[in-house]
Amino acid sequence: MKYLSTIMTAGRIFLSAMLLLCQPMTLLFFAVYVLCASTDILDGYAARKTGSVSRSGALWDSFADIVFIAVMFVIMIPVIGYAPWFWIWAGAIGAVKLAAFITGAAKYGAVPFIHTYLNKIAGAVLFCFPFIYYFAGIGISGWIAGATASIAAAEELAIILSSGRLQRDRKGILIR
After folding, report:
1. What are the Cα distances from residue 159, in Å, to 23, 135, 147, 156?
2. Spatial contact of 85 and 34, defined as CB atoms under 8 Å apart
3. Would you give the DSSP letter of residue 135?
4. CA–CA dist 42, 37 (Å, integer)
5. Residue 169: pLDDT above 90?
6. pLDDT tens digit sequence for 93-149
7. Whether 64 contacts 123, CB under 8 Å
């Protein structure tokens, strides 16, 4: 049981790779997609329940999240197609996240992933993106995801710029 959270995190990386083999927006795709998200939700819970919470586990969880998001970008680019406003917005969010990462790494000498409430909300909204896109198209899904991710990325950068030390479990800019 001690390694259950680690197995789930590794499973998310494996399942993310499996998504590349699924036809997008099919029942099989959504089933594997939900399994990926389930491991993201349950690995932290399992780590807390088994007393196996660790800094390296949190870093692996963040790495698995990056792999999952990168795979989803690769899958969704052909599905969404040419929606320049969406891709420009996604690139701008990526630039802010990269600036936060580089600034935090330089400032703290460590990987600066921060688990804020807004990052968790943005993660939940990004999880819902393919479902919202399937039913409502790029307009609604893109604006919801873009707005939420923009606010979360800006908050993360603001925390890194304003904090004297790395606080990975800081809940928000206004919450200590």
Report:
1. 39, 35, 18, 5
2. no
3. H
4. 9
5. no
6. 999 999 999 999 999 999 888 889 999 899 889 889 999 999 999 899 999 999 999
7. no
Q: Is the pLDDT of residue 1 over 80?
A: no
Q: Which two tokens stand for residue 154?
A: 């800006």
Tokens of residue 32, six digits: 């594997």
Residue whose C-alpha is closest to residue 126's, from 90, 81, 164, 159? 90
Beta strands of the chain (E only): which ranges? Answer: none
Q: What is the pLDDT of residue 80?
A: 85
CA distance 164 to 96: 20
Angstrom distance (rounded) from CA 97 to CA 153: 6
CA distance 6 to 54: 10
Give kind and range of the element (H or E) at residue 64. Answer: helix 55-80
Residues near 129 by beta carbon (within 8 Å), at least 6 away in sequence = 72, 76, 141, 144, 145
